[in-house]
Amino acid sequence: MSDTIPIWRIKYLPHSLKEICGRKDLIERLSDIIKERNFPHLLFVGQEGIGKTTIATLFSEAFLGKYFKSNFQKVYANVPLTSEELKQARSEAYVSTSKLGSLAGKTITTPAFIQIKVKPFIELKALGDVPFKILIVKNFEALGSNQQAFRRLMEIYGTNCRMMLITTKISAIIDPIISRCQIFLISPPKFEAFDGLIRYIVDKEDLDIEENTIKLLYNITGGRISNALDLLQLASISGKKIDSDKLYENLMTSQSDLIRNLLLICLKGDFPKARELSRKIQTSYKYNSKEVFNFLLKELFKLPISRYARNHIINLIAEADYRAIDGMDIDIQISNLMAKICNFAELL
Amino acid sequence: MKRLEANQNIPWVEKYRPKSIREMAIPQAKVNGHRVALDDELRTFIKNFFNDIHKINEENKKIRTFNRNTDDKHQKEELKIPPEKAAVLLEGPPGIGKTSIVYALANDLNMEVVETNASDTRTRDALESKLKETTKSRGIMDFIVISKDKLILIDEIDGIYGVTDRGAVPTILELVENTQFPIIMCSNEYKKNLQPLYNKIRKFEINPLSKDEILKIIKIIIKKEKITELKLEDLDLIIEKNNGDLRGIINDLQGITQGGIDKDNKDLISHLHRDSNEEIFSVIRDLFQKASTLQEARRITDKSDVDYNFLYKWVNENLPTFIRKNKELENAYENLSLADEIFGRIRKNQYWSLLPYFYDLFSGGVILSRKYHPKNEGFRRIVFPRFTSTGFFSLSTAEQSFVDKVKEKYNISEIEVIQNLLPFLKKLSSNSRKHLKLISDWLELDAKEKKLLK
Lengths: 348, 454
Description:
- The complex is a heterodimer.
- By secondary structure, chain A is of the alpha/beta class.
- Among the domains of chain A are: 23-79 and 111-185, P-loop containing nucleotide triphosphate hydrolases (Rossmann fold, 3-Layer(aba) Sandwich); 254-347, Up-down Bundle (Zinc Finger, Delta Prime, domain 3), CATH 1.20.272.10.
- Chain A is built from 17 helices and seven strands.
- In chain A, the strands form two sheets. Chain A has a five-stranded parallel β-sheet with strand order 2-3-4-1-5, with helices on both faces. In chain A, strands 6-7 form a two-stranded parallel ribbon.
- In chain A, strand 3 (133-138), helix 7 and strand 4 form a beta-alpha-beta unit.
- Chain A is flat.
- By secondary structure, chain B is of the alpha/beta class.
- In chain B, strand 5 (150-155), helix 8 and strand 6 (183-187) form a beta-alpha-beta unit.
- In chain B, helix 11 runs parallel beside helix 13, helix 17 (326-349) packs antiparallel against helix 18 (355-367) and helix 20 (414-431) packs antiparallel against helix 21.
- At the A-B interface, helix 11, helix 14, helix 16 and helix 17 of A face helix 16, helix 17, helix 20 and helix 21 of B.
């Protein structure tokens, strides 16, 4: 079955803790925890794309054994709820007046995400011979102020369900949550482990690659295995020999490059072209407004412009972001920002 | 009035609005199938109203004194004016003179018109608060100077909130029976749910003017505006296309004249004909190419029936076509972005009273940013706002099913599939047809989903 998977990053996924590339200290600690059959709430922190969720899931599989399916759940805090789920949340939140008690006729104000995706799972007792269930919450920082609601959950249902919270930004997690968790800082694999894995794949896929090229691959991708395998696969299409030129050729125009392009076009003052590109980015990546402005800000820092110009544009982005909170149409707010940058560029 | 006349760019509909009944071509009206003289009827209605309300007020004063000195059981109820004496309804197609006759009459009788539009008040409370103060109270100036009596005009009663359910009629009737001033309501068409209202007050069904009467008025305008290049057959075409809508005819006349008659008139006229599909194109064009003051911009957006939700998206889409200089573009977009923010607040918090700011910003604010107006701009293509920005993550059906199929084999979130995996798969498939086939087979994609990979 695994021989027929055409996508390398899926084909070479690890299926147990032992198969994870590098990070042996972490794996040892997690294996000890499995032997002890007990652990507190965990918080995994690390850059994106280095394997936090994969490690957490494999750990849970090993811990729960054959009772994995019914006692495990993974939820994404950054995926918005569908309209059906929102409707369900609203209807469930209202306590009918026919019920007894002081809550009758009132609306319970739990955040919809927790009500729909988390509560149904953690309220049920663990099934089978396991000490507790495990819930993984990915992109926990996306909850924002709803993290407060999680504090109580972690306390009340803690005996029944342990949480593993995964995030890239520890500064976006509130202190009460951090104090309830044990923190694990996850880092990308070291070069030796990375090298080992790449060589194994090179052997299996019958490629031809040099030591320097693997080092280059490690540096370009920052040790992120998914990205590295993607790049490797792209490079291998045109031939079994992989050299550094091929890697650079196939380095994908990722979203950051597109956004960087957008800023450059604005600084040239070409508004119609800028708007066309911004719409293309929005439709192909489906960013929400927060993400667009975040990416713009990130790329702005990489541009070689004067401090004065950068400061001014930061102000413009902040203003646009603020307007977009209440506004109905983000295309208008982005267009406004671009028009301002175009005009500002003329003064530079 | 004098100040307005000095402005060359005032719309002709306003410039030539009749200031007195004598200047008007009174449209024909029927009540219950019988022909009546509209102006006489309305005059009598108003005169009788003030007589009746005076009597009732006197009676009520006596009742109030009586009630103060008796206990609850024997108290009398205050009198209310019967609806058919308090209000009338003018029903007829747009542009035939319903509003004009009210204003002209008020001018002749030295009264002040208080106008509200029933269709843009979304809740009963809002409508009540708008009108209750006026229907009941007398202004503070009444104590100081002898101010004019008021005539209340409720326009677009057929668009009132609740006309599709039963909420509308009780609201209107309650207002009518508590009013201190005569009420004239206007409506464009018969609405079944307003039948209880039609049973209680008099309804004047107003017919459009005849072609001769229209021609008479148009000829006066042509003479006053010194239009010389309009052929009679073109004039006929305009009148025909507008179906008795005098307002529309005058607007079209102004549109053609001020746009330059050296073009092929027939094409222009058929472009101007008030088909709702074409209408928005002309609104946008008028806005950008003809309006040069805030008031004109306002009137252009007011006169169109286009949903404002959509109209400002049209402005956004076509802005760069008409405004090319970056400095002007920045100003225009500043206005539009403020308008959008206000609009968002209006929708989310139901602050409908802020709507006028929204209108002014996205119409007047935007077009006034354009300082440089080329004399003969020529034809600029106006585009439909195809692009809808998703405020949140929303997938097409093909994308959703693609995500589901990926999730079966590789457990990641939808966002990661669309933002991370899919761009990679696209690049892979575009470089190698073999891989396109392998991936589609492995994921068992159908044709639509396969298209996503290209």
